[in-house]
Amino acid sequence: MALIKSLKSRNSDLAEPAEQLKLLNGDIFREGKLPTFREKLMEINAFPLKPAAIKIFQMNIGYMCNQTCKHCHVDAGPDRKEIMSRETMQRCIDIISEHKFDTVDITGGAPEMNPDFRWFVSELRKTEVREIIVRCNLTIILANAKYNDLPEFFKANRIRVVSSLPFYNADRTDRQRGEGVFAKSVEALKLLNAVGYGLPDSGLILDLVYNPGGAFLPAEQSGLERDFKKELKDHFGIQFNMLLCLNNLPVSRFLEYLVESDNFDEYMDLLVRSFNPGAVQGVMCRDTISVDYDGFIYDCDFNQMLKMKVDRNASQHINDFDIKKLTERNIVINQHCFGCTAGAGSSCQGATT
Amino acid sequence: MEKSYYNPEDLKKFGNIAEFDAELAAKFFDYYGEVFKEGALTAREKSLIALAVAHAVQCPYCIDAYTQDTIAKGCSEEQMMEAVHVTAAIRGGASLVHGVQMMNKAKKLVM
Lengths: 353, 111
Ligand code: SF4
Ligand code: SF4
Hints:
The complex is a heterodimer. Chain A is of the alpha/beta class. Chain A has one domain: TIM Barrel (Alpha-Beta Barrel). Chain A is built from 15 helices and 8 strands. An 8-stranded mixed beta sheet of chain A has the order 6-5-4-3-2-1-7-8. Chain A starts with 16 loop residues before the first helix and ends in a 12-residue tail after the last helix. By secondary structure, chain B is mainly alpha-helical. In chain B, helix 3 packs antiparallel against helix 4 and helix 3 packs across helix 5. The termini of chain B are far apart. The A-B interface holds A 167-169, 171-172, 212, 214, 216-220, 223-224, 226-227, 269, 273 and B 12, 38, 42-44, 68-69, 71-74, 76. The complex binds iron/sulfur cluster (2 copies). The site of one iron/sulfur cluster (SF4) has 11 residues of chain A, from loops. The site of one iron/sulfur cluster has 11 residues of chain A, from loops.
């Protein structure tokens, strides 16, 4: 299996958001073969797209990761050095204390690799926020002895752990996430189960995230969840709570894969054809904001990677955080948004319909 | 006229059959949708059956559609190929079992 490196370390053109946006606004959309996302929203009177209420404060605390998955929309990897400082974290904690969001969703990269991660989570626990999610890639738990006690740390801080496992066998998982990742993920899941995560009545939530290993949309969430639960239980004795099904959005390394495998036009066509008007109200930017390592604010993690900050009239940085302006803003969209409205809809919380 | 009988773009236009007869098309698509729902067989099992049948009827549209669908439903390449071998076995067997008919006739004809 070829070693995958970040677009940035390979100096790929696609490391630049402008190049990605150029593709997302290329011939198939310009020549009118496919409608743009804006046109599609206008058809159903949903343009401009507006938030409902901001309930989830999502923070990307660094792009460094021990893995380099083929589909990663963050272009994360061991070489990425962008990382959130303690001051920025403190500013976020102040905002979170003041505004009482339902959920703080911590993502990366591998968020645990930020040296201030544990300090940050413990401080966050002192606020009144109801739910703290950590998006844990599982293998980090085994990557180094200093991470081995993460399951206990998560438990002590009542973290909801959300972890990617694209498939319940090694072949499909490793093709997407790298050789040996499945075996390590299984081991990590066992460690999480051992402290009570994912077990009925433990109150410790362990959700898994499925995303298709290629240029297709996921099947129905409940059927896949049933298969995942059965296979992981029968073969490895592993239990978990929910399976969240995500569509792959044509951003960063997944976009590169689409182009290189000659699937781009067909995948965009599939997303547009699968546009589900019923999924528009549930897109995550309507209840989430995303903060990057530098404190800039975006409508979602995908827009963050495309460096499309929230609308100029809203507050674009945590230093001038204004909840009213943010709630009233127009959401910034582009053609990658079709990934959120295709089929059963897709968000960081799984299918939306 | 198209230069080829089959065009991948036509699969996307399947729904357009309603243009010439909306009522029957609606009935067909309703029925189709019902057939593939979870039932005594799972949607995944039905998808594998569809893949096997697609190879039996050698419909390129169905092969395209059910390759995508079985993958999306979590079937492995191994399971998909086994389904195609089921098709081949039944098709081959269906030919061969008629060999008995041939033998019956031959035995009757020949002294
Ligand atoms: S998908 Fe997750 S685990 Fe994989 S490289 Fe990206 S951030 Fe890391
Ligand atoms: S990609 Fe982001 S901005 Fe676009 S619909 Fe999805 S969540 Fe909203």
